[in-house]
Specification:
The chain is globular, with a radius of gyration of 12 Å. The chain has a single domain, classed as SH3 type barrels (Roll). By secondary structure, it is an all-beta fold. It has no helices and eight strands. The strands form three sheets. A three-stranded antiparallel sheet has the order 4-1-8, with no helix packed on it. A three-stranded antiparallel sheet has the order 5-6-7, with no helix packed on it. Strands 2-3 form a two-stranded antiparallel ribbon. Helix content is about 0%, strand content about 35%.
Length: about 80
């Protein structure tokens, strides 16, 4: 289990865990592509990374995506 300093926290202060479902709180452009992920998109089965400010996930059309935790809300 992660210690308090390295816990992944969403935009509203909720602690994120491996496998959680989150929702985007802001529309985001994916770097290197023309894809835009809309606000409210639900992302299932997130994976925590070594950086507590980032999570790994997949959304339709993009695999291996890294999202900043400041743009997600735990569902």
């Amino acid at each position: 289990m992660q210690n308090e300093e390295s816990q992944s926290i969403d935009a509203f202060g909720n602690v994120l865990s491996h496998g959680d479902t989150v929702m985007l709180t802001k529309a985001l452009d994916v770097r290197g592509t023309k894809i835009n992920i809309k606000k409210g998109t639900v992302v299932k089965g997130i994976r925590l990374t070594d950086n507590p400010e980032e999570i790994a996930c997949s959304v339709p059309g993009v695999k291996g995506l890294i999202l900043r935790t400041e743009f997600v809300k735990k569902k």
